[in-house]
Structure formats: C-alpha cells, structure tokens
Amino acid sequence: MGAMLKTFSLQGRLNRLRYLLFNVAVVSIASVAVSALTRLMALVGDRQALSIIHGMVALTYVLAIIASLCLMVRRLHDFDQSGWWTPSVVVLHLVYGYYEADDSLTGTILMGTLVLAVHVAIIVTPGSKSPNRFGEVPGSAIAPV
C-alpha cells in the first residue's frame, strides 16, 4: 500500500527502472480496470448504472494520468530538474491531440515524434550520482523507496 501511495507523491526522486516499472504498472492496472468496466457496461441495461460505470471509467483515466504525472515529477527530480517541466509535456500531448483530431498527418507525425523523444529522454537520462536538492540517490540505504 505504501508504494501505491508513494506513486502519487511529488516528493523525492525516482530512478529510471522504477519510473518505467511504475508507469507500466499504472497503465496495466488502468487497462484492466477499464476493460472490466467496459465489459460490465455490456451487461447492464439500466441507464443510471450505465452512467455510474461511465463515471468510474473516467475516474480510472484521471487517476492514471495523475499517477503518471506524479511519477514524471519524481523522475525529473532524479536528474535535478524541477517538476514544473511536467506541464510542458502535458501541453505537448494536447497539441499532439489537436493535430490528430484535425486529421493533420504531418502535424500528428511531427508532434508524435516530439512527444516520443521527450518521453524517451526522460527515461534514458541518468539521475544525479549524488544527493541533489530533491533528496538522496534512489535505491541508496538512506533514500525512501
């Protein structure tokens, strides 16, 4: 339970492997939950129950997005960058979504490439080898998990 709550923390640092594994876990859990809720929608005929299930699907997506953003903040902290860079990644995703919705193939490809490059950079950039302003080196005996 502690690791799950830590997923929503904005404090401390997160190394590359844990960042990747926690994000895979968040996406997996959200996918299973949405899949189960979608199957449940097919079984429910009641309009009120259907709207409750839609709300639960939306809540699942919101929680997954919040968890991913919190993980990104802690990952940025690992290589001594402010978590305030995270909203710029959100803006990149929104611009990508705009081009995709607008059916602009060139814009979608260019923004998709930029979004992918940013995420790869966040994953592969090594963390600070010593304690930084955001805490101890992740995985060290002093640092919290």
Structure description:
This protein has 145 residues and is mostly helical. The chain contains five helices and no strands. The radius of gyration is 18 Å and the shape is flat.
Separation of termini? 12 Å
Question: Can you give the mean pLDDT?
Answer: 90
The residue fraction in helices comes out at over 70%
Q: Any low-confidence stretches, pLDDT <50, length ≥5?
A: none
Which secondary-structure class do the elements indicate? mainly alpha
Percent strand equals: under 5%
Tell me, briefly, the overall form: flat
Number of helices: 5
How many strands appear in the DSSP assignment?
A: 0
Task: Give the SSE string.
Answer: HHHHH
Rounded to an integer in angstroms, the radius of gyration calculated over CA atoms is 18 Å
Report the sheet with the most strands, covering strand number, pairing sense and barrel closure.
none
In short:
With 145 residues, the chain is mainly α.
Mind sketching the topology for me?
Layout: H1 2-7, H2 16-43, H3 47-78, H4 86-101, H5 105-124
Helix pairs in contact: 2-3, 4-5
What attributes characterize this protein structure?
145 residues, mainly alpha, 5 helices, 70% helix, 0% strand
